[in-house]
């Protein structure tokens, strides 16, 4: 895949066939799959200015489908920024927290864009798509700042930065039957493999987690990545916006008999929460050091030279800084983001704050992630959360809450 | 079960069925749809005195928390224990089996007609 192959710009303006929905603004942005979602009866939510499906019919059913069979998600709102040039790897080593120069072609790596004070501007997945090229996938809300920071930080290096977000749609198929579904979908071929796609099953079977393969779908280039944000096996498919509908329809037709359902952002949020995966704006932000979020391993202080934020992360947060923990409770009453955490039911001085919480659809108990004072972070520590005026005991538990069974 | 047009409504997306001095209360299909899958319902106990406009219960979905406002002054006659055990009734049948509480009311404030409520949703 080269940056040029996706330069078939599609402007995501609204489809005149559909009237404005209540509360919708004319400045809202639309996925190239918007028409499919509207026709499927999706409810929409504003996500960083994008009108995206929050659910199609039932967020619980969509969640369970991903855990037991598969779900298909439209993630076209996410940002894709390419760094291309002979010094692209060195440039990213300086710009990001991880050692991207240590990746091999076809590898993906979870990384962080830090600011000079050690705070997290965004969390990203970086795909090495060639010796001299990388694709950085950013959260939709941070696309502009990530593109600007990468442009700025990589300026001294011999490389160029292209924000290709408008030139790429992203479709994720997630769940234990994902591979079967891709294999059952006619039209995929793997670059360098059989043009008729007879080796797709084998190649996808060999593709490891956090690896990507360049391929095609009916003549269109597709980057097939074994990545995701649900805690299940799955694939993320990067394709040009003009061909996203065709790919979505082919996948849903082939996948429906295998249990594939379209899934919205509501289920994506409960899935990632069960999997203990942080979400920018909840668990991650510029006030948070990576180590507080349990992401110290993502920062390559020992193995590479200077990078933005190095000095700050080396001095680290204050010794008593809060740390991210998992919390579980009995009953059905879920703590939500921003609820305060206390040492005990009768204590009135907060020792932490919830960043995400829900009644876990898979486990059937309330789960939450929270930042708590370091002295309350040990597993089995009992804390108290104020749930709209009623206190409920929660217990600290190691993350993740849910782990997919291996085959 | 009354039809949509026979019920009265509040601006808090509740429906009220008035029969004599009893008001049966639930949330509208619009509200249920906006909440998403309801997973927990907290209702006031029988005998609780309610003041119109006060928050008397909660309807939680995976994504959010909806508050139940008392649409009338009165006393709780009955709560729907089926909906406490099976919260998804609020989604599957919001105007029927998904009813929430019955109130013996002392004062019936002005409520919205179906047309007025529908107009409110259009805004």
Automatic annotation (TrEMBL), chain A:
Keywords: Aminotransferase, Methyltransferase, Transferase. Residues 35-301 form the GCVT N-terminal domain. Coiled coil: none annotated. Pfam families: GCV_T, GCV_T_C. Transmembrane segments: none annotated. Its EC number is 2.1.2.10. Residues 322-402 form the Aminomethyltransferase C-terminal domain. It comes from the Bacteria. PANTHER family: AMINOMETHYLTRANSFERASE, AMINOMETHYLTRANSFERASE, MITOCHONDRIAL. The glycine cleavage system is composed of four proteins: P, T, L and H. The glycine cleavage system catalyzes the degradation of glycine. This is Aminomethyltransferase.
Automatic annotation (TrEMBL), chain B:
Keywords: Lipoyl. CDD domains: GCS_H. The glycine cleavage system catalyzes the degradation of glycine. The H protein shuttles the methylamine group of glycine from the P protein to the T protein. The lineage of its organism: Bacteria, Bacillati, Actinomycetota, Actinomycetes, Micrococcales. Residues 22-104 form the Lipoyl-binding domain. GO terms for cellular component: cytosol; glycine cleavage complex. The glycine cleavage system is composed of four proteins: P, T, L and H. This is Glycine cleavage system H protein. Its cofactor is (R)-lipoate. The modification N6-lipoyllysine is found at residue 63. Belongs to the GcvH family. GO terms for biological process: glycine decarboxylation via glycine cleavage system; protein lipoylation. Binds 1 lipoyl cofactor covalently. InterPro entries: 2-oxoA_DH_lipoyl-BS, Biotin_lipoyl, GCV_H, GCV_H/Fam206, GCV_H_sub, Single_hybrid_motif.
């Amino acid at each position: 895949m080269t940056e040029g192959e996706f330069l078939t710009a599609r402007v995501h303006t609204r489809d005149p066939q559909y009237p404005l929905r209540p509360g919708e603004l004319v400045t809202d942005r639309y996925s190239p799959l918007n028409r499919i979602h509207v026709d499927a009866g999706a409810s929409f939510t504003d996500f960083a200015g994008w009108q995206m499906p929050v659910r199609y019919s039932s967020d619980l059913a969509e969640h369970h489908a991903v855990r037991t069979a598969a779900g298909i998600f439209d993630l076209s709102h996410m940002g894709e920024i390419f760094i291309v040039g002979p010094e692209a790897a060195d440039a990213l080593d300086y710009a990001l927290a991880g050692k991207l120069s240590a990746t091999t072609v076809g590898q993906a790596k979870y990384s962080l864009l830090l600011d000079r004070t050690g705070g997290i501007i965004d969390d990203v997945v970086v795909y090495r798509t060639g010796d001299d090229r990388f694709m950085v996938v950013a959260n939709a809300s941070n696309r502009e700042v990530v593109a600007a920071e990468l442009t700025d930080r990589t300026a001294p290096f011999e490389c160029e930065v292209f924000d290709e977000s408008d030139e790429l749609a992203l479709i994720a198929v997630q769940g234990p039957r994902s591979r079967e579904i891709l294999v059952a979908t006619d039209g995929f071929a793997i670059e360098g493999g059989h043009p008729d796609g007879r080796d797709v099953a084998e190649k996808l079977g060999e593709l490891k987690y956090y690896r990507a393969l360049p391929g095609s779908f009916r003549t269109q280039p597709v980057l097939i990545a074994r990545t995701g944000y649900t805690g299940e096996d799955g694939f993320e498919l990067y394709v040009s916006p003009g061909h996203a509908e065709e790919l979505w329809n082919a996948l849903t037709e082939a996948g429906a008999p295998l249990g594939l359902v379209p899934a919205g952002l509501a289920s994506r949020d409960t899935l990632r929460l069960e999997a203990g995966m942080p979400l920018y704006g909840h668990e991650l932000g510029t006030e948070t050091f990576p180590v507080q979020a349990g992401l110290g391993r993502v920062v390559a202080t020992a193995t590479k030279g200077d990078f933005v934020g190095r000095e700050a992360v080396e001095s680290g947060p204050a010794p008593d800084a809060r740390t991210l923990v998992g919390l579980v409770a009995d009953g059905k009453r879920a703590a939500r983001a921003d609820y305060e955490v206390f040492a005990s039911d009768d204590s009135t001085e907060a020792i932490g704050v919830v960043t995400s919480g829900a009644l876990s659809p898979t486990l059937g108990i309330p789960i939450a992630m929270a930042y708590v004072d370091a002295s309350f972070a040990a597993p089995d520590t009992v804390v108290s959360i104020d749930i709209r005026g009623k206190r409920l005991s929660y217990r600290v538990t190691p993350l993740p809450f849910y782990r997919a069974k291996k085959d | 079960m009354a039809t949509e047009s026979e019920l009265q409504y509040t601006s808090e997306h509740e429906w009220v069925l008035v029969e004599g001095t009893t008001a049966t209360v639930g949330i509208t299909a619009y509200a249920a749809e906006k909440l998403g899958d309801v997973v927990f319902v907290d209702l006031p106990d029988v005998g609780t005195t309610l003041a119109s406009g006060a928050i008397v219960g909660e309807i939680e979905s995976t994504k959010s928390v909806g508050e139940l406002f008392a649409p009338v002054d009165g006393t709780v006659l009955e709560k729907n224990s089926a909906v406490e055990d099976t919260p998804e009734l609020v989604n599957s049948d919001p105007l029927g089996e998904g009813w929430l509480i019955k109130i013996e009311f002392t004062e019936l404030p002005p409520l919205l007609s179906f047309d007025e409520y529908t107009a409110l949703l259009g805004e």
